[in-house]
Design a protein that fits this description.
The chain has about 525 residues and is of the alpha+beta class. It is built from 14 helices and 22 strands. The strands form 5 sheets. Strands 2, 3, 10, 11, 12, 13, 14, 15, 16, 17, 18 and 19 form a 12-stranded mixed sheet that branches. Strands 6-7-9-8 form a 4-stranded antiparallel sheet, covered by helices on one side. α12 runs antiparallel to α13.
Length: about 525
């Protein structure tokens, strides 16, 4: 389970648009106050300042699903522990058959927030709706066709097109949350363009009752939750894009939890309010192996040799990051013990050869405020090594297509290495194989493909993890990617708040145990 932070000494749903209020959020002027009393007690409401507002009207099939998961509104058949292994959620047990193509899940006794029982038919409906949604949830992009069948009222069989050893982990993804049939409204569902309504139709300890555009949301305690009543009476959520505003709200006492405090704002908080969480997110430098000067492995090696990660961590991240141990950092707890040496790297080009190289285009995006600073620091390091460098820094949405097309020599990005299944094999496949859909390095190396394919085809968790670390070494050998640092996310938590989930996979934050001391 994710680390739980300990403090130190259902109603009608409304979804309102509020364009005037959205402007308040972008300027950081709005902070929601608590609806609970001023005294102590586990029945008070919580106040939470979230960094990202709903992007798809709280749809379960996009990024909003993660938001709903972090607020404990939705649940799936399974959930993930900190190692990425599947644990029981709405399913109590599961077993494979048919060579790993079919997994059979036994359901627990539970009810949806609208009072209906959780049944096998409801689970089947939820999985079918997810597979028909447009756009398709990312977690299904490499899963093949999923089919679900009710074997009896409390038993569901889920079958994939190919054997899928990661299916229990896949079903923990927030986009595959189990919802009441009432969520799909008049039988239209996602496949016919109908709106899927999560509010009041999920199973989590908190029920979403109101959303005010991109400004705020209200959650009430689900008193029929199968795991027992939540300790807080409800949650009042403010969506505040400005990190400085989130930090100041915590400092002033007008919020209890401030999500993703920027490292530049950590100094405004008391040390007791800062929770630095090692995560599965690695900031890496991706070099273009398919075109341009960095096709030469000696130049790539020279770029790698010029990087000073310690300086980046000290100057840009103010110590809230970890030095790179590989592609998989401290948030992937099993990786360090299984890591193997990297062998066969090219020797760096000489400084004279570096000076003759064409100007390198070094690119990143503005959506993560530290990355432009990282690129500026890297430019200085590369120029000291003899390279000529120019920067390209824009919003990510304007850069992704060009990065995937190989139009930059170097692209710096923050990447969640556990992606959608809680296992790094899908990240290794998408980013570093010849057929990879997110291959910003344009890497196509037979040894890498072979190593990643071996990991993807390994059923045993322990054996697959060893194969993944062997694949990591093969990838690092190419210098197509150089890990710069492993991020630590800073969650701001008031001194009197207990039970906040410090989840390295970023799927949980507020839980049934979160409350005021």
């Amino acid at each position: 389970m994710p680390q739980i932070r300990r403090a130190r000494p259902a109603g009608a749903f409304r979804f309102r648009s509020a364009p005037a209020a959205v402007a308040l959020v972008t300027t950081g002027a709005l902070t929601l106050t608590a609806c609970g009393g001023s005294g102590g007690g586990s029945g008070e409401r919580l106040r939470v300042s979230m960094a990202f507002p709903p992007a798809q009207s709280m749809s379960p099939y996009g990024d909003d699903a993660v938001l709903l998961s972090r607020l404990s509104v939705i649940e799936g058949l399974t959930k993930l522990d900190t190692s990425g292994e599947a644990e029981p959620a709405l399913a109590t047990s599961w077993k494979p058959s048919d060579g790993g193509r079919t997994w059979t899940f036994q359901l627990r006794k539970a009810r949806f927030q609208d009072g209906r029982k959780v049944t096998a038919d409801a689970v089947v409906r939820s999985i079918e709706e997810a597979t028909k949604a447009s756009p398709e949830p990312r977690v299904l992009s490499d899963a093949g066709e999923l089919k679900a069948k009710a074997k009896d009222a409390d038993t569901v069989a889920v079958t994939s097109g190919e054997p899928d050893t990661l299916l229990p982990q896949r079903l923990a993804n927030p986009s595959l949350a189990v919802l009441s049939p009432e969520a799909y409204g008049r039988g239209e569902g996602a496949d016919k363009g109908g709106k899927v309504t999560v509010a009041g139709h999920a199973t989590g300890p908190f029920t979403l009752t109101e959303v005010d555009g991109a400004v705020s949301a209200t959650l009430e305690r689900n008193d029929d939750y199968w795991g027992g009543k939540a300790k807080a009476a409800g949650v009042d959520v403010t969506f505040t894009a400005n990190g400085t505003t989130r930090a100041n709200a915590l400092r002033s006492g007008s919020t209890d939890i401030a999500e993703y405090v920027p490292v530049s704002q950590a100094s405004v908080l008391k040390q007791s309010q800062i929770e630095a969480v090692p995560t599965a997110r690695t900031n890496s430098l991706y070099m273009n192996t398919g075109r341009g000067p960095l096709q030469d492995p000696r130049l790539r090696a020279a770029v790698r040799s010029a990087i000073d990660s310690k300086a980046l961590i000290k100057s840009v991240y103010e110590g809230y990051a970890d030095e790179p141990e590989g592609l998989l950092g401290p948030g992937v707890k099993w990786a360090d013990e299984l890591r193997v040496p990297v062998k066969g790297r090219a020797k760096p080009a000489t400084k004279a050869q570096v000076k003759k190289a064409p100007t390198l285009t070094l690119a990143t995006y503005t959506n993560r405020p530290e990355l432009p600073e990282v690129v500026t620091a890297l430019q200085q390091q590369f120029e000291q090594a003899g390279f000529r460098v120019k920067q390209v820094v824009r919003d990510y949405a304007r850069m992704e297509a060009d990065a995937l097309a190989g139009k930059y020599d170097i692209f710096v990005q923050a990447r969640n290495t556990l992606l959608d299944t809680g296992d790094p094999v899908s990240y290794l496949e998408s980013d570093f194989t010849c057929k990879g859909s997110f291959n910003m390095s344009q890497l196509c190396d037979k040894a890498v493909d072979k190593a990643v394919d071996k990991a993807a085809g390994t059923g045993s968790t322990a054996e697959r993890q060893r194969a993944e670390l062997a694949a990591e070494a093969k990838i690092l050998r190419t210098d197509a990617v150089v890990p710069l640092l492993h991020e630590r996310f800073i969650q701001g938590v008031a001194d009197d708040i207990e039970g906040v989930s410090l989840d390295p996979m970023e799927r949980t934050l507020v839980t049934a145990d979160t409350h005021r001391e």
